[in-house]
Write a structure and sequence with these properties.
Length: 319
């Protein structure tokens, strides 16, 4: 097979329709690969497609196919990302998605070599996420109006996010059949459809049991009978709706932090680590494939330790 990405630009594509067809064919097979071979969730697949889509639009403006993109083209593409004000962390994520796409093209014999082999990602520092304190979490949960029809549902959701360290996608897809309330465990379907068992705290369990009284009054739509958290129409909650619920509670409590559903997951891991939990156990409960992903929380703990030393060590105390 020819090294297509080395063909001079003026001889690359005479037919824009053929270029679009080639792009579409490669991307369609890539989606099948991500879904069947990598077992990625639809949200993850869409994220990969967004990255490839950005490059496809750039390639189209240059009248070239994705199969004919060269390293020079990629450098120009990354330069455009910088010019648009895309931060280094987002640039690195986009480049990672594009590298995955070209790795697939080589694997499937579309290309003999990936044009990304010598493409470097921008250096990014480790971003330590915002974490809520236990008192801030208590304030948010106490601020929920339990007299409202959705009050017990919202309390149960926040308790589950914090007590079980769930991703928002795991929360909205949580099934009643995955609750083992007698054993105080839940079965979670994580990324790549990988299942894990997570202990259920007594507060979360009680909140869920109270929510069932309200849930049983809903006109449940067909296909949602086993979904735990439903909206007022009896259908599965959207991820965006969970975000709005949390945003409103943050404003109501006057908390000045960037809080999202994922913040409860970060808080779950951080508080476990601060309480002396083993990093490997936290990794299993979060469903991280690699321990290095979980190790970000050791940096949060070190910052807390540093603060304690600066505040309380005799050499640092102001007399």
């Amino acid at each position: 097979m020819l090294f297509l990405h080395k063909i001079p630009r003026q001889f690359r594509y005479k037919s824009s329709q053929k270029m679009l067809n080639d792009n579409h064919s490669a991307i369609k097979k890539y989606v099948t690969f991500l879904r069947l071979e990598k077992s990625l969730s639809e949200n993850s697949i869409q994220a990969y497609l967004d990255d490839v889509g950005k490059l496809a639009r750039f390639a189209s403006s240059e009248n070239i196919s994705l199969l004919q993109v060269s390293l020079d083209d990629l450098h120009q593409f990354v330069s455009q990302l910088r010019d648009l004000g895309i931060c280094p962390r987002s640039q690195a994520r986009i480049i990672s998605g594009i590298k995955s796409f070209y790795k697939f093209l080589v694997l499937e014999d579309y290309l003999e070599v990936s044009p990304c082999e010598l493409l470097e990602s921008p250096l990014v520092g480790m971003k330590i996420p915002d974490v809520l304190s236990t008192s801030e979490i208590d304030r948010m949960i106490d601020a929920i109006d339990l007299s409202r029809p959705d009050g017990h549902r919202n309390k149960a959701m926040l308790e589950m996010l914090y007590s079980c360290g769930l991703r928002v996608s795991e929360l909205v897809n949580l099934q009643i059949s995955a609750l083992y309330l007698d054993e105080d465990f839940i079965r979670v379907n994580g990324k790549g459809n990988k299942q894990r068992l997570v202990p259920l705290s007594s507060s979360a369990k009680n909140a869920v049991l109270l929510y069932f009284f309200d849930r049983n009054q809903l006109p449940i739509k067909k296909g949602n009978e086993d979904i735990l958290f439903l909206n007022k129409f009896g259908a599965k909650l959207s991820r965006v709706m969970v975000f709005y619920i949390i945003r409103d509670l943050v404003e109501k409590c006057g908390i000045i932090k960037a809080v999202s559903p994922h913040t409860f997951r970060h808080s779950f891991a951080t508080h476990l680590l601060e309480g002396g939990a083993n990093l490997r156990a936290i990794q299993m409960m979060l469903g991280h494939e690699r321990i290095t992903t979980t190790e970000i929380y050791t940096h949060i703990d070190r910052e807390a330790l540093r603060s304690e030393i600066l505040e309380h060590h005799p050499r640092n105390m102001k007399h």
